[in-house]
Amino acid sequence: MKDLKINTILSKEQTRQREEHNFIASENFASDAVMAFCGSEFTNKYAEGYPGKRYYNGCKHLDELEDYGIELVTKLYGCNFANIQPHSGANANLAIFKAFLQPNDTILGMDLSAGGHLSHGSPANVSGKWFDNNFYGVDDDGWLDYDKIEEQAKELKPKMIIAGASAYSRQIDFKRFREIADSVGAYLLVDMAHYSGLVAGEVYDSPLPYADFVTSTTHKTLRGARGGMILWNDEKYTKKINSAVFPGTQGGPLMNQVAGKTQAFYEASSSSFKGYASNVVEMARYMCKIFEEDGIKLTSGGTDSHIILIHTGERSGKDVANELESKYNIVVNKNSIPNDPRGVWETSGIRIGTAAMVTKKGNSKEYFKDIANKIVDTIKASVV
Predict the structure, then answer these.
(1) 50: CATH
(2) Which of 214, 287, 357, 372 is deepest in the core (most CB within 10 A)?
């Protein structure tokens, strides 16, 4: 028997997702098949360990499932090895830290205020408490300055360099990061959580030829079950990575989520997914053109991905985001911009992404133009 209160809340959430325009860059709409597997009988089974080496009996079908997921994802990204058990992208990062770093080792990652992620050494995160954390940022126009990053690396000599971001719209030069890491003998970790679907769709350069290890979420642009994964090419890392995931930082995998991830890998292997990824970037660039024509400032002046970081001028990002939702049912998130004079709960920008609504609307320029115009009108509205 269903709990009526939960069912009512679910019904309201289903209505919200159906009716609102979701432009949160980290969200998407999973397929019915993905959601069905996430709610399947795989929920009922513990599977601590790895295929062929479990701590519980009764796992032969789960072994088959996990092996199949690994087969699909390594083929999708052209890599040799994968761990698809991490519960999230942050858990995947934590496992890499556990495997290859010691407390107080020096790491160099992107500053949260410049577009980085909490799990890359932010003081608010456990990664910011264990290591000697140092950060690179962006230039005054919002671009990564690789020469400056190289200078920092040579001065700091970090054990690990982290490339990847949650609010950086441009193509990251992974080859340049590899060169910087090699110059100081550092590991290179790439967190491609935001870009993994675009990489799978071949519209964003892959970090796999250059990184020692690549972490990612499995939702966002990949459009799968919520969770994480780790990809790598060198067999010498395999034992350390797998041991760091289980038993190092997690217990048993959520096999229902592993099933949902595997379905997403299957879907992302199709030619239609490449068309989807292309449309995501095309619509983001189309919206940028409208913003530019209307005098709206964008960090870095545009995008190479699904992400657009928009300056909100005299209005705070918080006010703009709230008004977009209340007036137009457009959901975005407030977001700091480089050198933001406002605090993180107010901000001077909003971050939007096209991945979710391209899932729903395809490459309808009429639709995305209407949304862009509403965002422009809201930013330009008089400050109350």
Answers:
(1) 3.40.640.10
(2) 214
